[in-house]
Amino acid sequence: MILYACAKTSPDPMADDSLTPKGAISSADLPKGDITGFVKLHDEFGTPKADNAGMIVSLEGLQTAFPARTRPEGRFTITNAPAGLYNLSYRKEEFGNTKLIGIIHTGGSVPTTAPPINIWETPRTIPANLTVSINKLTISLTGIATPVQPAGTAPEQQRRVRVFFGRDDKVNALNYTMTLPQFTLAPGGTGAFSLNFLADDLLSFKPGERVYAIVYGITATENAYVDPETKRTIYAGINPTPSNVVSFVLP
Fold first, then answer.
1. Residues 155-170: pLDDT tens digits?
2. Is residue 237 part of a domain?
3. pTM of this structure
4. Are 86 and 192 members of one domain?
């Protein structure tokens, strides 16, 4: 099923030939064609879903309309889109929003096929009660994560977190200076965790500088992409509820 967004807006120079400079090509003159692709949905631990329907796929770039929905097998078709360079946005409740960047669409009778994408369900992992301690050059972040993992949880079912570091207390998963590879939380009866790393791992900071840290629950496959404007990696596979922010002076 193809959905079209209808909104009353002011004239768009890209869509109004009367506003197009002489000799330029308007969007109406560009060749049009279909964009197809395939989405495979997984639960938060990577088990494939039987039903891949309902993921909304839309275009960013020359046009922002032309959304489509995936069918149960995961296929989608965006019809009659003008040729251009696009980012494909994938959104569904409980799966967050991820993107494929820089899809070249030439238009014409042969559809453009986007690379297949695997998208994991938003994890339920929520870290809290974050504290920090330093022993010489080793920095430890401790806290509590829910849901609690029982002892003996299989490795592929163990929960994961990612730490983001910044230079002020506004640090978050979209506004950060650097991050480290994700940590796997050891199963146990309390949900307590300890994330340990060295001062030398924080290459973006200098000794004596105050560093702020925040922790998010994340899936093993993070559906990460690089934002073309900020050049920052966006990790789509995170739980939007983070820990509190803590700070420390880098030894």
1. 989 999 999 999 999 9
2. yes
3. 0.84
4. no
- DSSP states along the chain: -B-------PPPTTT-GGGSPTTPPPGGGS-EEEEEEEEEEE-TTSPBPS--TT-EEEEESS-S---EE--TTSEEEEEEEESEEEEEEEEETTTEEEEEEEEEE--SSSPEEPPPEEEEPPP--EEEEEEEEEETTEEEEEEEEESPPPTT--GGG--EEEEEEESSTT--SSS-SEE---EEPPP-SS-EEEEEEEGGG-TTS-TT-EEEEEEEEE-SS--EEE-TTT--EEE-SB-S-----EEEE--
Let me know whether 223 and 139 are in one domain.
Answer: yes
Number of domains in the chain: 2
Q: Both 152 and 188 in a single domain? A: yes
Q: What is the CATH number of the domain that holds 241?
A: 2.60.40.2060
Domain that holds residue 104: 17-120
Same domain, 116 and 138: no
Tens of pLDDT, residue by residue over 85-109, are 999 999 999 998 999 999 999 999 9
